[in-house]
Amino acid sequence: MDSEALKKYSALHPKPAGLTLQYGTAGFRTKAEQLDHVMFRMGLLAVLRSKAVVSTIGIMVTASHNPEEDNGVKLVDPLGEMLHPSWEEYATQLANAEEGELQRIITEICQKAAVNHHKDASVFIGRDTRPSSEKLSQSVIDGISVLGGQYHDYGLVTTPQLHYMVCCRNTHGQYGKATLEGYYEKLSKAFTELIKQSPSSGESQRHLKIDCANGIGALKLSEMESYFPEEVLIHLYNDGTKEKLNHLCGADFVKVHQKPPRGLDMKPNERCCSFDGDADRIVYYYKDATGHFHLIDGDKIATLISIFLKELLAKVGQTLKMAVVQTAYANGSSTRYLEETLKVPVHCVKTGVKHLHHKAQEFDVGVYFEANGHGTVLFSKAAETKIRQLAKEEKDDEKREAAKVLENMIDLINQTVGDAVSDMLVIEAILALKGLTVQQWDAIYTDLPNRLLKVQVADRRVIDTTDAERRAVTPPGLQEKIDALVKNYKLSRAFVRPSGTEDVVRIYAEADTQENADALAHEVSLAVYHLAGGKGAPPQPM
Length: 542
Ligand SMILES: CC(=O)N[C@H]1[C@@H](OP(=O)(O)O)O[C@H](CO)[C@@H](O)[C@@H]1O
Ligand SMILES: [Mg+2]
What we know:
five-stranded mixed sheet; 3 domains; 41% helix; 542 residues; alpha/beta; 18 helices
């Protein structure tokens, strides 16, 4: 390592004095102007990681659904997964090192992680459409270059597209071609094959309105449109030409506020969906004839996909083990439907995609979704091999056809990470094949009314949780208080946890009516405020 060069270049990306940041649930995320040094240093870290695992590593510059002024960065591991937890710690150390300590910290990481300096390093870079992203990705490149790494800059891509590229590269093309064209071709071919067999529905069923959150999704969907079969009639809104990224629109806004985004005119019973700012989340919704808004969130997406896959797996007659992975935020009705009606095992894990992904890998077919619309399906290698073999060789027509559908689902699904474009095509294909309208999908089960709130406290780390974050262990008395409050309502449930992406404590409550869910959420937020060091004025009822 050329220490002089490191010193010189690092000085061009100085760390603001006193600033400490944490590699959280989704990498580093904060105001864009505080991130230049972090980007440079994550360029350094990506080189080390690449040398340590002798594979291409990805770096995505994005702050997803956060405001346009923010930005962030996350690293992508060789098969397109999130950065390994042991390296999150190194990322945090490197980001927070003072200028004079940088060299030492790098040496320490190299020792601890057995980085082989003789190996080549290769990094793929992508960025979202934020005004700050281009300059920040240039800082990433500076970091990569100073340690002698090779890089390929994909420029503007969705987060899942970058994950896909990294996986393609490290599987030497087995997963697909590591180009945007390769991505578009793979997905649209699988989709076209799938919907060939769908009963022809009227034209009105083919329209889909998409709120692109004024982000990257709009750009990439426009690029992809020429690959789609003509049955697909998508209409893009909030394409970023007029309004600000994520402002009053996008999947997070729609999910949190349970209302339609601005900038999308919705007629009764029209099928609509929203992407988030980096297009790794999607939620659907529609307005009924009385004007009432219906949200179809990640839980209902997981349910639709599970119903479809379960039927196919039964048809191919293999004993492949399927399970659904959720977090505590999953609506109680969804868990109950999956377990009791569909009879699919459900597992609850901690918030954050990496936890869901990890758990889903334990099954032949692992469906995972966060309620907010981030999710995908993982097929084990064994399951995939079996399905592809049946699709080719099976003599029984019905079994072979079912296997072919599964095979195309495998190709359509981005198995590296939740992907709004891929998920949307999966959903559209399932609705078309099953001849389901958005209302029929919504009616599979009825969501329990729920409310998500946040409370500011002096130090959110005073709250420690257990049981996949469903119970608070500290501060003393808090869980007992929550238990007592929950008892006052029917079909109720509530939990609190410190956010991994914002300086807040999140409160979730559900109950038999919206009024009760709101009241319970409010009472729990007061308990947090009083027992966990609330900041500012006490939370007000809604
Ligand atoms: C309740 C909620 O939606 N939490 C989100 C949010 O995490 P928090 O740790 O709750 O801030 O951001 C994560 C990253 O995008 C996402 O994985 C997660 O689902
Ligand atoms: Mg996102």
